[in-house]
Amino acid sequence: MATERTLSIIKPDATRRNLTGNINAVFEEAGLKIVAQKRVQLTPAQAGAFYAVHKERPFYKDLVDFMISGPVVLQVLEGENAVAKNRDVMGATDPKKAEAHTIRARFAESIEANSVHGSDSAENAANEIRFFFAETEILP
Ligand code: IDP
Ligand code: MG
């Protein structure tokens, strides 16, 4: 298994409830190392471009509004199989369908306000990391 990097976002529902540390503990206990992290307020343009793949979906506008409703924590996670491992610890998109130990089962408010984003492939991870971070900001 190769060492990989993935992009994680702690979403506004979770920053609002002061859950950054609880969520980071899950990543670290799973063997994912937080090699870059910054708390930012996304602009509408940034959130819209980041989720452009969902532009035609009925939930797109609400999703962008939600993602700019408060600060997010942008992160690069590194570890063995980091993309799949992060998806495992996140749990299913809909917290009602997520396994009990996962971040979304434990912390998410709804299918939209589901506390975390994680890249879904190595290729998307590379693009998403580049969207938010300069290489000099990533410190393994
Ligand atoms: P993922 O975050 O598990 O990869 P995606 O299908 O890529 O799920 O959807 C991106 C985000 O859009 C979700 O995390 C969630 O915030 C939101 N979303 C997805 N499906 C729905 C829906 O049916 N209603 C409302 N929001 C949704
Ligand atoms: Mg996705």
Automatic annotation (TrEMBL):
Its Enzyme Commission number?
2.7.4.6
Q: Which cofactor does it need?
A: Mg(2+)
Please list the reactions this protein catalyses: a 2'-deoxyribonucleoside 5'-diphosphate + ATP = a 2'-deoxyribonucleoside 5'-triphosphate + ADP; a ribonucleoside 5'-diphosphate + ATP = a ribonucleoside 5'-triphosphate + ADP
Domain Nucleoside diphosphate kinase-like intervals: 3-140
Provide the alphabetized UniProt keywords.
ATP-binding, Cytoplasm, Kinase, Magnesium, Metal-binding, Nucleotide metabolism, Nucleotide-binding, Phosphoprotein, Transferase
Q: What is a single molecular function from GO for this protein? A: nucleoside diphosphate kinase activity
Annotated ATP binding lies at 11, 59, 87, 93, 104, 114
Q: Where in the cell is it found?
A: Cytoplasm
Q: Where is the active site?
A: 117
Q: InterPro entries per the record? A: NDK-like_dom, NDK-like_dom_sf, Nucleoside_diP_kinase
Matching Gene3D superfamilies: Nucleoside diphosphate kinase-like domain (3.30.70.141)
CDD domains in the record: NDPk_I
Task of the protein: Major role in the synthesis of nucleoside triphosphates other than ATP. The ATP gamma phosphate is transferred to the NDP beta phosphate via a ping-pong mechanism, using a phosphorylated active-site intermediate.
The family assignment reads: Belongs to the NDK family.
Give the NCBIfam families listed for this entry.
Answer: PRK00668.1
Q: Subunit details for this protein?
A: Homotetramer.
Give the protein's recorded name.
Nucleoside diphosphate kinase
Q: Which gene encodes it?
A: ndk
